[in-house]
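Example S7 (structure tokens).
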């Protein structure tokens, strides 16, 4: 008590009390600020791979057995005490940035979602990238809620972008209201999504040290690398390369400059602020030894996609067909590369070293997603491959893509094969239209072409694909009668006679036959008459004799009804633009077809009609994808049947009326009476059409009849048949019905 009195009596009493009170209130303020602390949690693509917590593996460029309907097949992972679940995700290929790829195909719409709750989420940031040559931006949505796997409350983003080498990087920032605990990234828009990292800012009463970031991403590399790390301001980075934890290991080093990696190495790293540590993260850098020969490629291939380094010096592109690109090393060996938009053309010569995906497919090695702008290679024109003379029995999988010459082959017309008497090979029109081969003991062929293997139902067919007419040499003791039809095909109306004629040097009797006399007949003199709707093949055959080999030539007769026009491949092929489509059009018999956003690639069997674009809520078409069909002057349309490839007819409407869809026949049908119609593709994904079958009748339909018959295409017309807007007053017609608008 005496001590207390002594303190009171000191001259420093007020000064001491002031300090005590200030210290007390400072502590109170610090606690308040600490309680309201906002922490940003970061998870990178590498963290998603490294944090695997379940039994499902994450593969590269493939989704494995992940099934949206079966939760046990979902990929789960944990990072910095937070757990996540996901489905239809994989590690993207290097050409797509090597991040995490989410799928969007039919019902497979990939997602990533947290299952451990965050405390009051304030902001979400997602970084994604696309290859610079890709015209499409990332398309996805982020949803938030109070329960895991939210799908209703959708956020709106602020977007920024920048160029980063061969990629364009997009940053999407979302301000979050109502302090939810859960989020889900859903690829429910068109196309795949390639994610680099996700950041979540939330309220926290605990300071979380963010993990270091590997600026040099882990993965496969050619040659030594300098690995760059970064961390938040004020944090120090410690790392190890011997598998130990840098937070406790005696071998840990403080990061001060890029880490040199000359051989396959795993780097463990953690950030430290004061005495507090982040979680430990790691990345593996695999230094690949380039494979030098195609023979070694076959030895290295397995049934799983594997990234390998290949020395491409001396490789030449021998041909391209669809998604397949064929290469040869010039020594009789070859390989096929699978992937769309590869950019190569026959004669391209390669040099350099690059990383690609290798897989064993149907017994032969195949590389995937290899393009002419792959990092590490150079492409020059003028490459040539001297064909290697081989016997059919000598051909093996390692020859696929190689250019070979096989001599002394006879043709078997029944099986459509070439044979040397011991083994068979199938000539195929991969790169050119093949001539009509002749089956005769007096005729053999020397064939030069690209070797291709076709495997179906565990049966392998060896094909040889000539590239020019010079690749087919005919050896004959008898002359060719030079038989031919004046046209390859002809369209006829029922009852019409064909204009096509058959000529030959053979002076004996020509035998004419029809594949279907219910469709078209042919007389002994070669006169073709159309009977009924359908397709028939007319054959003109000459026998061997008079110094000539035998011959057999065909013409295709397409018979239509009166007033019918059929549009197909020959009318549209080569028109339009890949990716987003452009105008594709054709006219026949006065009937015109105009596709607004289409693409019929040369060699394909279908016309791609790109899907309509919708608003964000998917409730209204903002940019329709249309097909406009018009009848010739003096006539009107009565029926339109569009046929598609399997499962690609999609859904269509004219105005407010849905077209009749036959999912078994893959057709969409409109019937009515109109001078012209506009069909709208109501799907946001592409249709693939193979033909339009259009019927017209005599006479034009006046404006009002057209409105009623065609349900007005959803538009409004006055009684004079003029199109009017919603402000028009009086009697109008809409969807075939009259209304009084006051």
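Recovered sequence:
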């Amino acid at each position: 008590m005496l001590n207390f009195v002594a303190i009171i009596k000191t001259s420093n009493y007020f000064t001491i009390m002031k300090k005590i009170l200030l210290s007390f209130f400072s502590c109170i303020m610090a606690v308040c600020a600490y309680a309201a602390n906002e922490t940003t949690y970061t998870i990178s693509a590498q963290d998603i791979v490294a944090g695997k917590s379940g039994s499902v593996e994450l593969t590269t460029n493939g989704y494995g057995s992940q099934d949206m309907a079966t939760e046990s097949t979902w990929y789960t992972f944990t990072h910095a005490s937070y757990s996540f679940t996901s489905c239809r995700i994989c590690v993207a290929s290097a050409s797509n940035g090597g991040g995490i790829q989410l799928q969007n195909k039919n019902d497979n719409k990939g997602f990533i979602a947290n299952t451990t709750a965050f405390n009051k989420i304030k902001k979400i940031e997602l970084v994604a990238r696309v290859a610079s040559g890709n015209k499409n931006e990332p398309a996805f949505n982020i949803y938030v809620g109070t329960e895991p796997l939210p799908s209703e409350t959708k956020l709106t983003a602020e977007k920024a972008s920048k160029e980063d080498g061969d990629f364009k990087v997009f940053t999407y920032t979302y301000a979050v209201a109502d302090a939810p605990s859960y989020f889900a990234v859903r690829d429910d828009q068109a196309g795949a999504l390639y994610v680099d990292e996700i950041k979540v800012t939330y309220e926290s009463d605990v300071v979380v040290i963010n993990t270091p970031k590997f600026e040099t991403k882990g993965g496969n590399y050619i040659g030594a690398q300098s690995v760059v790390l970064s961390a938040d301001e004020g944090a120090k980075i410690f790392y190890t390369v011997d598998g130990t934890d840098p937070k406790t290991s005696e071998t840990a080093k403080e990061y001060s400059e890029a880490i040199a990696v000359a051989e396959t190495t795993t780097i463990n790293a953690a950030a430290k602020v004061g005495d507090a540590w982040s979680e430990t993260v790691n990345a593996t850098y695999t230094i690949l030894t380039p494979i030098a020969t195609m023979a070694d490629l076959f030895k290295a291939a397995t049934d799983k996609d594997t990234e390998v380094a290949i020395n491409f010096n001396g490789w030449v592109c021998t041909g391209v067909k669809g998604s397949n690109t064929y290469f040869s090393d010039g020594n009789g060996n070859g390989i096929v590369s699978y992937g769309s938009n590869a950019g190569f053309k026959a004669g391209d010569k390669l040099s350099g070293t690059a990383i690609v995906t290798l897989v064993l497919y149907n017994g032969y090695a195949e590389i995937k997603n290899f393009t002419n702008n792959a990092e590490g290679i150079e492409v020059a024109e003028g490459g040539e491959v001297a064909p290697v003379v081989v016997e059919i029995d000598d051909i093996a999988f390692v020859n696929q893509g190689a250019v070979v010459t096989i001599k002394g082959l006879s043709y078997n017309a029944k099986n459509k094969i070439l044979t040397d008497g011991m083994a068979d090979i199938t000539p195929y029109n991969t790169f050119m239209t093949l001539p009509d081969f002749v089956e005769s003991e007096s005729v053999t062929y020397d064939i030069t072409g690209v070797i291709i293997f076709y495997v179906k139902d565990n049966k392998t067919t060896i094909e040889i694909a000539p590239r020019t007419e010079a690749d087919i040499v005919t050896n004959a003791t008898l002359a060719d009668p030079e038989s031919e039809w004046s046209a390859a095909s002809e369209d006829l109306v029922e009852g019409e006679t064909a204009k096509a004629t058959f000529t030959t040097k053979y002076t004996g009797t020509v035998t004419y036959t029809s594949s279907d006399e219910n469709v078209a007949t042919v007389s002994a003199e070669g006169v073709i008459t159309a009977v009924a709707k359908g397709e028939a093949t007319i054959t003109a055959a000459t026998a061997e004799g008079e110094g000539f080999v035998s011959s057999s030539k065909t013409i295709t007769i397409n018979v239509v009804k009166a007033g019918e026009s059929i549009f197909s491949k020959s009318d549209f092929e080569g028109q339009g633009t890949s990716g987003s489509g452009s105008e594709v059009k054709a006219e026949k018999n006065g009937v015109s077809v105009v596709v607004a956003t289409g693409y019929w690639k040369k060699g394909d069997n279908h016309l791609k009609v790109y899907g309509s674009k919708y608003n964000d809520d998917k409730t209204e078409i903002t940019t329709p994808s249309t097909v406009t069909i018009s009848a010739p002057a003096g006539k009107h349309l009565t029926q339109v049947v569009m046929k598609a490839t399997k499962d690609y007819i999609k859904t269509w409407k004219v105005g407010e009326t849905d077209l009749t869809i036959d999912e078994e026949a893959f057709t969409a049908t409109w019937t009515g009476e109109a001078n012209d119609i506009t069909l709208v593709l109501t799907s946001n994904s592409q249709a693939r059409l193979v033909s339009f079958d259009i019927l017209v009748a005599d006479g034009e339909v006046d404006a009002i009849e057209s409105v009623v018959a065609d349900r007005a295409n959803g538009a409004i017309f006055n009684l004079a048949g003029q199109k009017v807007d919603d402000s028009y007053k009086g009697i109008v017609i809409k969807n075939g019905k009259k209304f009084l608008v006051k």
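Notes on this example. The two ends are 97 Å apart (CA to CA).
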